[in-house]
Amino acid sequence: MRPGDSVSWPHVHRPRAIGSHAKQEVPAIDLSDPRVALPRARTTAGGLVKSLLLIGAALTVALIAGFGGVVVLRLAIPDLPAWSGLLIGLLALVFVLWGISRRFAWIMPWYYVLPAIVFLLTFTFFPVLLTIWLAFTDYAGARNGQLSVATTTPIVAVDGNRITVSDPAGLNCEVLRNGCVDVRAEVYSFDLLAVTAVDYADGVLTLAEPLPRGREARQVEMFLPDLGFEFSTEIESVDGALVRLVSAPPFAPDLERIGIQMADEVDRRIVTLDGAVLTLDASLPADFEATAIARYNEYGFIGLSNFVSILSRAQRSLIPVFAWNVSFAVLTILINTAFGVLLAVLLNNPDLRFRNLYRTLLIVPWALPNIITIQVWRGFLNENFGVINRVLMLFDITPDPINWLGVAMAAKGAVLLVNLWLGLPFMMTAVLGALSAIPRELYEAAKIDGASAWQGFWGVTAPLLRTALVPITLTGFAFNFNNFNLIFLLTDGGPPVDWGTATARGTDILISWAYNEAFRSQGGYAYGLGSAISILIFVITVAVSLVNFRVTGALKEESNT
Amino acid sequence: MVQGWKETMTLRKMMIALLTVASFGLAFGQGLTVWTTFGDQTLEWLEGEAASFTSAFGVPVSVVKLDLNELPATVLRAAPQGEAADLFIGVPHDQIGNMADGGVLADMSVYATPGYLADLGEQARLAYTFAGKLFGLPMFVEGPALIVNTDLVPELPATYEEMIELAQELTTADTFGFMFDAPNFYFAYLYFRTFGGYVFGRDASGSLVPTDVGLASEGAVRGVQALKDLRFEYDLIPAGVNTEVANGIFVDGSLAMIYNGPWAISQYRDAGVNVVVGPVPPMADGTEFGGFMGVQGVLMNQFSDNKVDAANFAKWITRADAQISMAQLSGRIPVSEVAVAAVGDDPIIQGFGLALANAEPMPNIPEMGQVWGPAGSALSVILETEDSDVEAALERAVAEILGN
Fold it and tell me: Which end of chain A is more exposed for a tag (fewer CB within 10 A), N or C?
């Protein structure tokens, strides 16, 4: 009986009946269609949407409790570490979940998948959303949202919320997308007082005169004559002329040479910069003696600029890199499959002696860590000192040494060669497995029909291998399309070529190009640009995969063919 | 029995819990963490200094080694999250602008004592000064010089031309005459600068102008042509030679002359190679050779929660005594004038001193970060084939540096 032919399903009671009406006669269950016969889980009673809404609400409450809890508790305990928010959030989550489960008992099974949902949100959704957001910003090393100490510029005059600085160029506003307009800033009040002390004992310094009021005394510098060393320590408290130090100097200080750092700072926003005059969003506190101002490295939304800049330079980067990326993945799969099938067919011959030994030896590349073997290959491929060129020249295969890693074409060949070495064991093992599933009788029948070994391969082995090879080659293509390890370790994307740029070189694939843009160019850290490339890679990968699936028919069920 | 075993288990659990809490306390509270790019002897020196600092001040210091290529990037990523060390030691000054712009470096002007500043060489102070602030305490100056194997070259040639001739004679089946990592812009700058090229021009006040890049100037083209001649005209540096390869041959004793820095000296000494250090000899017309030099020192993390102890350690390892022991150990030139006077008669230090007298400190503005990649790419392309177009490749690199 084929699954669709079942006639018994209308007689099967709804699963609910099995539990609640136990006394009722249980009809015979026809197991030919498990979808109908097996009891339906009661737990979906609430529905998917309702369950997800409840879970989402619980997580939101926990998130708010975590953040809010830290903010509130910091009012009482200023030094509260940030991770305590995690604990508060977790407690809140447990409490909320318990509450929900009391009201909606059917939600219990969802709690088993809750950790998975949280991890999915944290490690997959969050990075993806962050990448998408960054792709539309100008985030980079010099625009990372941090306070830029390098822009600290002395203040010469203060008039309400208008501040005159000595050197407006010092604020280095031109690297920000709008200049110094609506930029967060820190205004400092700093002074180093040279004072004398009359006594020092047990971590307490007695100054000749009490410290001036207003600014906070933060740090003491004292010279230790016994060590010939200028020692710094923080101040725990000041009581008139008594200064209590956080850590006591190991030797007695020179009481004539004491320096005390007085400092204070306030947070403001720069509204505009006009010549040397800055306008702040609010005036400074009355007794605040402003000495300097530093701005933050603001970053923000810049629309499609990153994509425009990538596409405007596509001729030298995106297009050649994409072309090589596709040919790399396709050629790798073709070469590896060809060699894998060849070796597997040879090793599958039961008449071959020591074939288990060969199999074991051929699996070795798989057992060694790539990170080591690729480095070894780098050494092998050295033009003048590598073993490969020496062997080639010994047998007069090539008159001059091949500059494997220094010429783009040779480097591409080297990448394919090393990837063959790395990928062959997997291909061979997979094909061997598929081969063992082909019945011997088919070959015998072919032989009786007078087929040669060659005809046997094309007539029997090849068609039967196809089913097994399609998924392997598809995953292999997807893996190699983003095979960052190999490129990074073997050629590091090099050699540089005259048609490329410093970040898109001879063997760079899309992902290594994105890495170079994000972490190596523009002084290192053009995350915005790198994220934009990542998004382009995603679009390209999806397109390639769709074409791939369409061409190979992988979206259809293999068993039907 | 069972009861006793259970008790030991709880006791053990409690001890483990206590230890965990204690180690957390150590990690977050007292103690300093230092990231360094030092290796071998200099790392041992740093660990020794850390131990003496701990015994004097009671502050534990843990030293972690990082690769020079990844330290600045790691700091920029990790420091704002509070996950970077308190101090970074051994960062060449060309990274200063980049890191300071990212907001991860503390202004160390407040920690530099008047005594230290008075003793500090002018060039070192300028190298570590960015945007008018001292972003670190310099420790030593280093840069490449001509290192000669005296077993193969008994007498230093007087001119560059003679040196090339000698190198050609010494390039035989078993030995090589002169080699260095030519496609590496750091070393290749010797040829750029000597022939009139430059990285960034300077305005009237002496500040670097990031829009004036002189790597494709007429002098730069001539210099790179001279560099290219080493490979294709004089057959001295075959393709595939990088620092490791050249170093390996020099350590074997089969390379007569190498252009390399003091970091390699201990390796040569350990291998038993007799070396003399000096400048690349001047050309017949009297032009002196000079490339890049770098200043290394101590940087402080702006996000460190232990800045005061960190400042004490920074001052501790930059004192003149420490610089003297560092110099004697590693051939680096101290930045303290007292220390320079104390180690001036060491032939290795003297040799590097002479070689670096003509050298230029690497630019420390953040735009320098954009120079290394394109310049190195251009050199690779130029040195790849004999018929490469030097001028076109350099012009492309300059366009890329300027962001066009």
Answer: C
Query: Using a CB-CB distance cutoff of 8 angstroms, which residues of chain B are in contact with residue A498?
Result: 381, 392-393, 396
Give the tens place of pLDDT for each residue, A4-22: 444 444 444 444 444 444 4
- Per-residue pLDDT, averaged over B246-253, amounts to 93
**pLDDT tens-place string over residues B348-359:** 999 999 999 889
Determine contact, residues A405/A389, Cβ cutoff 8 Å.
no
In a shared domain, residues B80 and B46: yes
Same domain, A398 and A365: yes
Q: Which residues pair with B130 in a beta bridge?
A: B133
Residue B256 CA to residue B166 CA, distance in Å, equals: 9
Chain center to CA of B212: 25
Question: Is residue B24 domain-resident?
Answer: no
Instruction: Choose one of A135, A163, A184: the last residue of a domain.
Output: A135
* Token reading at B207: 């500040």
Total number of domains in chain B: 2
Query: Which of A257, A188, A207 is CA-nearest to residue A228?
Result: A257
Q: What is the pLDDT of residues A217-241, one digit of tens each?
A: 888 888 888 877 888 888 888 888 8
Asked if B399 has any chain A CB less than 8 Å from its own CB, the reply is no
pLDDT at A9: 45
For residue A487, the cross-strand partners are none
**Same domain, yes or no, for B175 and B255?**
yes
What percent of chain A clears pLDDT 90, i.e. is strictly above it? 25
pLDDT higher than threshold 90 for residue A444: no
Q: Which helix (H) or strand (E) holds B290?
A: none
CB-CB contact of B316 with B48 (8 Å): no
Average pLDDT, chain A: 84
Q: Is A309 helix (H, G, I), strand (E, B) or coil?
A: helix
Q: Which residues of B touch A151 (CB under 8 A)?
A: 131
**Chain A contact probe: residue of B381, B388, B394, B402 with most A CBs at under 10 A:** B381
Helix (H), strand (E) at residue A71:
helix A48-76
Q: Please state the ipTM of this predicted complex.
A: 0.75
CA distances from A164 to A97, A154, A292, B255, B336 (A): 56, 9, 10, 62, 38
* Beta strands A183-195 and A292-295, pairing class: antiparallel
- The number of C-beta contacts closer than 8 angstroms across A and B is 157
Residue A23 reports pLDDT greater than 70 = no
Q: What is the 3-class SS of A399-463, one letter each residue?
A: CCCCCCCCCHHHHHHHHHHHHHHHHHHHHHHHHHHHHHCCCHHHHHHHHHCCCCHHHHHHHHHHH
* CA A188 and chain centroid, separation: 37
Residue B227: name the closest of B361, B360, B90, B394 by CA: B394
- Over residues A148-179, the pLDDT tens digits come to 888 999 999 998 889 999 988 888 888 888 88
Span B177-198, average pLDDT: 94
Count the Cβ atoms, other than its own, within 10 Å of residue B402: 14
Amino acid at site A31 = L
Q: A382: distance to nearest CA of chain B, Å?
A: 6
CA distance A115 to chain B (A): 25
CATH number at residue B382: 3.40.190.10
Range of the domain at B64: 31-142+294-356
Query: Span A453-462, mean pLDDT?
Result: 85
Asked whether residue B101 falls in the same domain as residue B187, the answer is: no
Gap between the Cα atoms of B293 and A449, Å rounded: 80
Distance CA A530, CA A344 (A): 42
Of A39, A40, A12, A37, the C-alpha closest to A26 is A12
Taking the Cβ of residue A32 and every Cβ of chain B, the question of whether any pair is shorter than 8 Å is answered with no
Q: What is the extent of the structural domain holding A19?
A: 3-39
A315 in the same domain as A436: yes
Looking at per-residue pLDDT, the higher value among A247 and B184 belongs to B184
